[in-house]
Design goal:
With 257 residues, the chain is an alpha/beta fold. It has one domain (10-244): NAD(P)-binding Rossmann-like Domain (Rossmann fold, 3-Layer(aba) Sandwich). The protein contains nine helices and seven strands. The chain has helices at 3-6, 26-37, 51-64, 78-91, 115-142, 164-184, 202-206, 209-217, 227-238, and strands spanning 17-20, 41-46, 68-72, 97-100, 146-151, 189-196, 249-252. Strands 3-2-1-4-5-6-7 form a seven-stranded parallel sheet, sandwiched between helices. The mean pLDDT is 90.
Length: 257
């Protein structure tokens, strides 16, 4: 059990209902585990739901005595998004937290990148997230409260070669965070983004080792982030500890200054 899970006795999200996309691994799985440890009921959204995933979610339920429900969601498919919104609305009278974590990677030089690839990445990393958020924010507004957390990336700010498509999609996401925060504030909904640096997820394994090590070397802490490092910040932004924080992008990158 992690240190943050041990702090679960504080139950910072007791009786809250949270939606987390990309929940089957990496940052998303760390977030649902942490939220459950703090008392939240979780809808764990993912594209593919296999037996192993269901077993892991059951283990989380048993450990923390909360519901962790797997939900099929493909952010590249508008029908899937609308179906997920409908299922969530039918399964809960309130939504307190939305973590837009799911995303897809892309790495190639601009002149070598097709428009089809750019559209594919933006469909998942931006447009799909926007449609999901529109639907779920309406449910949050009914209760005049909520926290939306968008997982951006330091790639939105660091223009390394080969990152134009992915970085631009994440930059759009961070910019949208600010506008949503402005518009949703009167409904009591806070909107913030987290910009992780190099993090030990599937995307970490797909990075060119030289590029990965360059970014780590540029950080003050000289290491990659663990998914739990990101989940800890998501917990802060989801809880009342951040009740007066909105419209911000929090960089969790080990001090890339």
């Amino acid at each position: 059990m992690t240190g943050m899970e041990q702090l679960g006795a504080a139950r910072l999200l007791r009786d809250k209902v949270a939606i987390v996309t990309g929940s089957n691994r990496g940052i998303g799985h760390a977030v649902i585990r942490t939220f459950a440890a703090h008392g939240a009921r979780v809808f764990a959204c993912m594209r593919e739901i296999g037996p192993e995933t269901l077993d892991r979610l059951q283990e989380i339920e048993n450990a923390h005595g909360v519901s962790v429900q797997a939900l099929s969601l493909d952010l590249a498919d508008e029908r899937s998004i609308k179906s997920a919104i409908k299922e969530i609305a039918g399964g809960s009278t309130r939504i307190d937290v939305l973590v837009n974590n799911a995303g897809t990677a892309s790495g190639s030089l601009f002149q070598m990148t097709t428009m089809a690839e750019m559209r594919r990445v933006f469909e998942v990393n931006f447009f799909g997230q926007m449609l999901l958020t529109q639907g779920l924010a309406r449910l949050m507004a009914r209760n005049k409260s909520g926290s939306i957390i968008n997982i951006s990336s330091t790639a939105a700010q660091i223009a390394d070669p080969g990152t134009l498509t992915y970085g631009s999609s994440k930059a759009a996401f961070a910019r949208a965070t600010q506008s949503m925060a402005t518009e949703f504030g009167t409904s009591g909904i806070r909107v913030n983004a987290i910009a992780p640096g190099v993090t030990r997820t599937d995307m970490y394994d797909k990075m060119a080792p030289a590029a990965r090590e360059k970014l780590i070397a540029a950080s003050a802490l000289k290491r990659a982030a663990e998914p739990q490092d990101i989940a800890n910040v998501a917990l802060f932004l989801a809880s009342e500890l951040s009740a007066f924080v909105t419209g911000q992008t929090v960089r969790v990158d080990g001090g890339m200054v």
